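Field log, afternoon session.

UNIT: design team B
ACTIVITY: writing a sequence onto a fixed backbone
BACKBONE:
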């Protein structure tokens, strides 16, 4: 008979293997890389379970991790002096999560990272990432490609914010990220788009009335 402790240990191990497989798939879909080197890189990550509303990085702390989301959803946000929340981005399954400025330069973060759902992540420390850069061929290319993706996305978002009206920005967001939009409240979407949640509510009502 298997004890509860053993059952729990097996469950945790199975979950970690599935988490590593998701990360491995992401890497191999991003660049061409030897599987043994991918496995070595994945072994540097530590699994963590995060509860809904748990803040894993607070304003003023120095970020000690970069993370890959295995399950769940996060928001990365800044709070203005008048307590207005401005969401930089969301991160769901298969997406990366970090305050890259604080992580790279080891100075206090200007951001907060909070789980919007019960979540699971794989975390890598700065020391282990530096080890990977030095000892695992392909890792620098992986993060260079990821950085290029991020820069393109940021540039497109900045142009859209400057040139596209709020109603169209909302439509663009929901069309580009339909699965994500379904998991967010009006308040979250408004804080990301830089508009009021009342306006988001009116947009959603207008869309519902058009379909009916």
């Amino acid at each position: 008979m298997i004890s509860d402790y053993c059952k729990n240990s097996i469950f945790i191990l199975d979950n970690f293997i599935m988490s590593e497989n998701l990360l491995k798939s992401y890497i191999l879909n991003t660049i061409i890389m030897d599987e043994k080197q991918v496995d070595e890189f994945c072994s540097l990550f530590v699994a963590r379970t995060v509860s809904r509303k748990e803040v894993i990085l607070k304003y003023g702390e120095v970020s000690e991790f970069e993370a890959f989301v295995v399950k769940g959803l996060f928001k990365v946000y800044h709070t203005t002096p008048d307590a207005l929340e401005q969401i930089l981005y969301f991160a769901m399954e298969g997406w990366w999560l970090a305050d890259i400025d604080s992580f790279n330069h080891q100075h206090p973060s200007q951001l907060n990272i909070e789980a919007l759902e019960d979540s699971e992540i794989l975390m890598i420390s700065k020391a282990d990432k530096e080890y990977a850069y030095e000892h695992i061929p392909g890792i620098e290319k992986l993060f260079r490609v990821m950085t290029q993706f991020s820069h393109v996305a940021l540039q497109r978002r900045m142009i859209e914010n400057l040139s596209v009206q709020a109603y169209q920005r909302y439509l663009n967001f929901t069309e580009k990220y339909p699965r994500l939009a379904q998991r967010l409240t009006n308040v979250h979407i408004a804080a990301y788009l830089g508009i009021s949640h009342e306006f988001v509510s009116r947009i959603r009502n207008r869309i519902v009335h058009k379909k009916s």
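LOG NOTE: Residues 4-30 form the longest helix (27 residues).
NEXT ACTIVITY: expression trials, pending approval
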